[in-house]
## 1
Amino acid sequence: MAEPVIKIQVQHADFDLNDEIRQLTAGRHDIGAVVSFSGLCRDEDGTLAALELEHYPGMAEAEIRRIAEQACKRWPLAALVAIHRHGKILPGENIVAVIAASKHRQAAFDGANYLMDFLKTRAPFWKKEHPKSNTEGEWVSASDSDDSALNKWD
Amino acid sequence: MAEPVIKIQVQHADFDLNDEIRQLTAGRHDIGAVVSFSGLCRDEDGTLAALELEHYPGMAEAEIRRIAEQACKRWPLAALVAIHRHGKILPGENIVAVIAASKHRQAAFDGANYLMDFLKTRAPFWKKEHPKSNTEGEWVSASDSDDSALNKWD
Amino acid sequence: MKILYFAWIKERVGFGEEDIDLPAEVKTIDNLFTWLRGRGEEFEAFLEQPDIIRVALDQVHAPERDTSLAGVREIALFPPMTGG
Amino acid sequence: MKILYFAWIKERVGFGEEDIDLPAEVKTIDNLFTWLRGRGEEFEAFLEQPDIIRVALDQVHAPERDTSLAGVREIALFPPMTGG
């Protein structure tokens, strides 16, 4: 298989998964499976005005790239894309997308899942919740379940 | 969580993953994770003119729905979509899409992966390869690796 | 009884669908296979390896060959699935 | 040395970035924490629980507190990540 294509973007703008997938499969006939993950801003209580996503420019891209390179060593991937938004994000909007492409489906599932698990705990992004009721927001605490999700890759 | 939304479509027309995901998340703020799988027509040798997908109308939809209902019993899914194309499909084109939505990411990954594994071996579809060199096509043989992929769900 | 054939089985039989009155002694899938073999060499040919033939009764997989056909309206015979 | 602060650490310190000449005795991350504590109560406050502070040296995670700062141009201090 050719060298995997890795594309990492940190941006405020939203993304179109279909376009992203079309770009990475265009002109290639060796990709049989594409798995995408999108993470959305939840608000089950209806109390959230917006999320604010802060990041460490430079390191955010570099760290996701390091994780993507690890994934490409572990599975035969044709392409791996990660797009993480920053700035203000409203309930129901996209926060992050990961796309993994491979010849066969299990590598694509595992590659996308692995990249998300490590991105969650290692990529320098921080969420602040701005409630509708309150002008001052609160920083989200890191989740133990995100840390323990990494155990499945040992 | 509300009753999961299940949508099964068997059609010749292509699909737009972004539109499908937008439809199932529209107006909902309880979905934090969406995983999509798309299966594409490969042709690494450059010898394939087209795939022909035959199916059993009625049973194809019913069988995928039975698998989707099993997945919804096993994981807390908000929505599960499967779209399977039939008829003539060219190299690089989409064959199938599965989308799973949930509050958290692992359920979405597992739901999509499970639905694909069982769809592969239980949904009544058959592929015939029409080579560029030959007017008469050949039916694809079932794959042992697809059968053994089911073991991970035991 | 409506009987459906798919993929290469349909090609060997020469048609995809038939409506047929099954004799009273055809009570199970096994009985059906035996009876079909007697209908001509196109049926014998695809039933040479009966273990690989999949059967659905009223659009539900029926993996056991001693399953009764009582009350069934639609039988489908097809090779292992290769979709997805 | 460039020092960056993120998220609630930035809010407590009051700024996100500074250029500063570290004294020669600040040779490790541990030394840096000790020295920062002496700079005022806004630094003491965020360093009350030093174990939860993450450190990156030149944009690479540095989980060990005895890691040397020799040759480093950019140090970042931030809370556990909550992206994705």
Note: The mean pLDDT of chain D is 97.
## 2
Amino acid sequence: AAGEEKVLTIGVDQEAVGLDPHIVTSFSSHRRVDLLYNKLVRHDENLKIVPDLAESWEIPDNQTYIFNLRKGVKFHDGTEMTAKDVEFSLNRVLDPKTASPGRSYISTIKSIEVLGTYKVKVVLSAPLASFLEGLASNNCAIVSKAAVEKYGNLQKVAVGTGAFMLKEWIPDNSMTLVKNPEYFEKGLPYLDKIIFRVIPEQASLLAGIKAGTLDMAQINDASTVLLAKRDTSIAVMQKPGINVRTFGFNTTRKPFDDVRVRQALSLAIDRNEIVTVAEFGMAQPTGPIPAGATQWALPLNKLPNFTPDYAKAKALLAEAGFPNGFTFKIVTANSFEGGLSVAQVVQNQLKKIGVNAELEVVEWGMYIDRWVKRDFDSMVELRGGSGEPDRFLYRTIHSTGGVNNFLFKDADVDRLLDKGRVLTSYAERKPVYDELQIVLAQKAPIIFLYCPFETHVMTKQVKGFKQVGYGSLYYLIQTQK
Amino acid sequence: MSRLLKNPIALVGLIIILLYVLITAVSQFWLPFDPLQMDVAHIMEPPSFKTGHLFGTDEFGRDILTRIMKGAGVSLLIAISATLIGATIGTFMGVWAGFLGGAWDHWIMRLADVLFSFPSLLLAIFVMAILGEKTYNVIIAISIVYIPQFARVSRGAVLAIKNNEFVRAAFSSGADRRFVLSRHLLPNIMMPVIVQSSLSLSVAILLESALSFLGLGVQPPNPSWGNMLSGARKVMLLAPWTALYPGLAIMGLVLGFNLLGDGLRDILDPRLRNIK
Amino acid sequence: MNSANTTPQPLLEVKNLKVYFPIEKGIIVRKRIGWLKAVDDVSFAVNEGEAVGLVGESGCGKSTTALAIAHLQKITDGHILFEGRDLSAMPAGKLYAERRNFQMVFQDPYSSLDPRMTAFDTIAEPLRIQVRRGTMALSEAEIRDKVLDLMDKAGLSRTFSNRYPHEFSGGQRQRIGIARALALSPKLVIADEPVSALDVSIQSQILNLMKDLQNELGLTYLFIAHNLAVVEYFCRRIVVMYLGTIAEIAPSEMLYSEPLHPYTQALLSAVPIPDPPRERQRSRILLKGDVPSPSAERQGCPFKERCASAMAICATQRPDLLEARPGHQVACHLYGQKGNTDGNHH
Amino acid sequence: MFDKKETVLSVRNLGTRFMTSSGTVKAVDGVSFDVHKGEIFGIVGESGSGKSVTNLSILRLIPSPPGKIVEGQIILKGKNLLEANENELQMIRGGNVSMIFQDPMTSLNPLLKVSVQIAEVLELHHGLSRKEAEKKVVELLKAVGIPDAERRAQEYPHQFSGGMRQRVMIAMAIGCNPDVLIADEPTTALDVTIQAQILDLIRRLSDSRTMSVILITHDLGVVAGMCDTVAVMYAGRIVEQSAVDPLFREPRHPYTQGLLASVPRLDSAWSERLYSIPGAPPNLADLPAGCAFAPRCAYALPVCRNAYPPLTEMDDGQGGKRLVRCWLHTSENSGEQQ
Amino acid sequence: MGRYIFRRLISLIPVLLGVSIIVFFLVRLIPGSALQMYLGTQVEATPEQMEELRRIFGEDRPVPVLYVEWLGRLLQGDLGYSLRTGREVLPDILQRLPLSMELTFYALFLSLIIGIPLGILSALKHDPATDVAIRITGLLGLSLPQFWLASLMVIAFSGFRGWIPMGNYIGFLKSPLENLRMLFLPSLAIGIGLAAVIMRYTRNSMLEVMQMDYIRTAQAKGLAKRVVIVRHALRNAILPVITVAGFNTGYLLGGAIVIEEVFALPGMGRLALYAIYQRDYSLIQGIVLIIATMFVLVNLITDLIYAAVDPRIRLDTKEG
Ligand SMILES: Nc1ncnc2c1ncn2[C@@H]1O[C@H](COP(=O)(O)OP(=O)(O)OP(=O)(O)O)[C@@H](O)[C@H]1O
Ligand SMILES: Nc1ncnc2c1ncn2[C@@H]1O[C@H](COP(=O)(O)OP(=O)(O)OP(=O)(O)O)[C@@H](O)[C@H]1O
Ligand SMILES: [Mg+2]
Ligand SMILES: [Mg+2]
């Protein structure tokens, strides 16, 4: 009814570490930033880049981007957002002292030029196809120059352009956001108030929604989701996320330096079974590009070595000199990211081709240590993915990639990645990445398994929310209750 | 031994323990199912005679009864080895401290005090984090928890015996400390140490399962009762039997050791013994 | 200066023995805040073949003295000469061999036997220890013969060999303790209240046994008891202790017929005699108060608070142990200290 | 001489057993005796002969299980205590009959002030208020010779020495002017000089209050000095009972004789050997058929091993009676032979 | 008394110092480092950033130096900053402390009110069958794995609102009743084991006390059975039990770790666990130190209770 305050209470399992969009890394912080700040461009629900603070943009050559800003956008403190703030924000991200994780996304920026109050030109030192993707990151949000100068950093305050404003923050308990009446999209948001409640346990989040003390929560734990699905009084919203569960090899170690061995292993993996057992069916098998990025990802039946074929796998093994299989170790950890269940299923599946996988279940800190030191035969991971193939695959699998801890080096792959990076139009890039996906499936340095669903559970009254694929709460702007 | 058999509590405890030992022995040769083999078609099936899964199946479709049987050996191995190691080192320390007295005593017991003020589970977690999750590290972690406990018990026992006149008699016949230690003190503190051991065995089972429950103990897919429960946690509300039976298995064995320990304590209690 | 006894060299000589226990306090660093003077300047001698009694109330330092003599207790000061040699100066490695010369019999027949050792093993233990140390060369068979012989001597049936202490009565245990003490054929046997824990009828068995053994083996005894009657029966000479010091030393008949020290007098009168008419007629000297704590700092005569004949000097000056008459020493100001040896107040 | 006096407490054919894992222990078996007004009645005997159990049975303080009074009567002022109900018993305990125990170090509750522990009895039996009782406590403490009684009353047991604690126990026991004080080895744990003090105190209190005392001890010297009448116990039975002088002068039962002969005496001349009774005390769970002392007795007759001797009454040579349980004396005196 | 407390407090210092040393070095023995954990698997850092981070994370100095630095700050009441969240450690811990203390306190309370009466009953019951039954029940309580019991509780009570906390913790001050109801099951899960221990000790202690001479004295005075038990036996019997209870708070605090995990309670045990996983050194050190302090303080309190009840201890203090 009109006049009544519309409050949405959302349960989160972790407290925000801070609110400065350029600094934060934690998932929980990003979820607040989603609502408090805007970027030049953003993702829509299909992970496509769409305008946000930039009304439009031009790409005269593959190293130059010119943004036309929205007019009349106000920061929460009432000042207007201008090209100066954009320049300041990007420079702040680039400044090593800020230690922004966003820096690596846009480090190719050579210069930023304010062309007018509402126009900015950015020149890159090298072509980077995923540049816009980088700008769509919360870490490249536009902040108020004045506010930064006033507060030093923005960890505890929020002076953004977002649809909601920070009202109250009681650490480890709750955070209250209220509607920004000056929000630039007229009529939005519908909600008057959003309250974040920190409830660490997944089961309690569900309990809260059942009890009506919460309106909505993101739930990662598959069994809890399963329970939620049984309850007809609540709504469960699911969609493949952009994170990718992988089973990767240290390709410098024997026998994984032999592509036939990797292919054989890939042929022995049944992704559907893994999804059924380890994720209770709540994930989507994927290839090298997260299945949710529909504009890029190839269907799995187009990818070689993705359909189990044990005879062929055994033949490949024999060819590689392991007619009786071999023994190796899978590093895994007893946490969601560590994928213990997945490792157990993989171990079980590999028995079919006579390969004996031993699990090295290590504690999370040790797991990271092994990851950093690249000390593993193979490892089950949950990789932070991206809807943008350059962003995800370049760092993951290019021989110079920052997180290529598979130590994979392949001329074809490098060539394709480099090629995809300098092109700017979708039409030009698409065939390159199609080929890359097939090459990667062929060479199998990593066995891409599945993308876990992103799941939001909510009461039936909550309407209009859309999932993006990485947990973003952006669409709360359009949500009604 | 005959006194042990006359004590109903100890006897029941002993029978329970022997039962578990028997199960462990059987599990070496025969198991109803393969404890590691997953069966995707039969995930989380409730207990049933028809399917042969008497205790149901877990989230990977593995037979729970089989895994419990397989886990019995691990639990027994860990409990027994950890207690043995902890008892040996702790008793040595305690005897050393109690016998030598003075500064040795002071510092050894201070160290024990310090270790004591760590909650035992936390201490075990620390050790596991340092050593890494290996079955033998679980043994080490638990024995480290036990060292101060045994040190205390044995020190107390030594102090009680040290001033007995037979110790003086041995010295006055020309015995040296080593002789007195090995001939008089050690044999005489064995009983309290044994009682403590049987109670420690029970706590070791609980500690192992708590560690595995927290993901720091025995590594999956090898079954231990603790990691079975840990795995069951995710699906507990969907399939309660996955949590029920491993827990009952733990409880049974722990109860066995507790009964034995309590019974032994009775047997050793001079109040109950001296009635002629 | 020599007494009636004509033995030239005493077997055991205790000279100015002091055993102090530190009273400590402190948490991290222990500090000594005082001394408990369990034995404070005690001197006496035991001649070969003699049985000397040591009596006194509980806590007066009898056991501590005994342990010091057996070299089982570190001494604070003084000398203990065995056959004229001061063993306390001896390195530990050599002392082991000397130990066979003096052995102890303990008070408590329960705690003095290891509950996990058979009677045979208990008695054989001293022999085995000495064999291990190489001070004796005996085969296991010889040890066996010797132990069985000792069991015979101690009045224990040979069939008891394999029994454990809990299967024996108190008297039998004490016999085992005596057999053990005799295993090394000691010259001196220190018996610390060997019969206090026993019933009267058993007590006499043990006393007789010890006496027979003395006659048979020519043993020398230092016999400790709190029961004057027992000591008087068993010993030819008696040392009376009070609060860590010696009050009086005298041959037993002399001590009984003519005690000099007021404490000895009170002690004697307090011992009940199993003869109703005599007991009823006896005039009792009832002492005031309790035995003071040995940990308190003290001055003057240790007995001054309870003494009916205390004088001014008693409060300030500690009396020396002086010979009041031949063979009879007393530490009391009543008996004219310094030179006035024949002052007799009776 | 005490025959003329009135009997305060009469124990008739008392039998107390303990059911233990190794059989039934006949701790007290057919014990009878009378305690007269103002008399000190001694019970001697070796450890385990049933002295304590006899006296605990009088107040029905035997721990049960395993103990049980199986037969007999205990008559106090014409009433059989074994038939008394719990309330009556409570009024008698500490009121008409009170007890003190062997070890003064453990007989007092360490957590309660001395005054409270004594006052408790007075409040219970005399219905005094706490205040009145406390006043009386100080008087009592003075009566038992505790100096500075007002202050000491407010202290805790551990602040007292052993002798003092025994005095406190005595003060507690005489608080209600009991008819009978049972003192179970009251001085065994004390030094000789302290023992003399305590015995002297008991003697004086008994005289001044005409209170009967049952004095349990294993020290024959104590009996000699303190008691009017004495009973000698062996293996749960009274084997000889008599006025004190005749018993010591001329013990009749071989056990009594042996006991007396085996004690070293200060007054006797230095002798080479003491007498000693051969053998060891019997196991009460497995008593021989006949006289329990027979296996150790030098005069044992064949009959001694088969049948338990009846009680023989004889003259004590000073106008009183004495009782002996021994076949030697039955055959001599009444010719009653089987 | 004041001096006694003071002396006891002083005596805690070496123990806590020992704890601090052990925990400080122990956490650094755990493979992997806080910095790695901070970077995780996703973040890339430039060399100069790494340099800076290394300095912030203290990886450029030897551990003993770090210890001395830390100790110095500790003495000023500064437990340092969490490397993970960048926040001060102390407020974070203090925020979790009430829950942990409530949990421990309720568990202790429950175990005492369950354990002591049962123990007394078991000791006073002459009927051996009842005694054995009570004892076996007690041992059963001791044999229940806490986390399992807690899990069963979650299953059984998941339908009842307010009994299973599952994350949302309501402070005692905010709503005592809610707080009690919510923490009842978790406390019970932790306390049942201790209740069994307490029961056993009470039984033994009671049996022992009932054999003491002063009980016989009290009976001989004519006191009614009830009075003998309550006034003379109980007090003496419970004294050692109090000490045992204090000594077992370590067990409770340890139990809290798994129970907090199962019931998803934001307590210190759980914080400790995650701090270990995350290699959040200052946080672990702070928590362990505070847990150890709690442990020794509880033991101090039990000793004080003991001293308050037992006059023999009081004398010691006068002398000391
Ligand atoms: N190891 C020790 N440490 C401290 N004090 C001691 C030690 N041994 C004995 N004492 C003290 O020394 C004093 C003398 O003790 P000792 O045992 O020699 O007495 P005792 O005459 O043998 O007494 P009892 O007749 O009771 O056996 C006592 O006050 C005792 O408390
Ligand atoms: N609670 C009990 N349970 C079993 N047997 C008992 C118990 N109390 C006493 N007895 C047995 O009863 C017998 C008599 O014991 P009692 O205490 O009367 O002896 P006593 O003459 O007082 O000896 P002591 O001089 O040692 O005090 C002993 O054999 C003893 O073992
Ligand atoms: Mg002594
Ligand atoms: Mg007795």
Note: The radius of gyration of chain E is 24 Å.
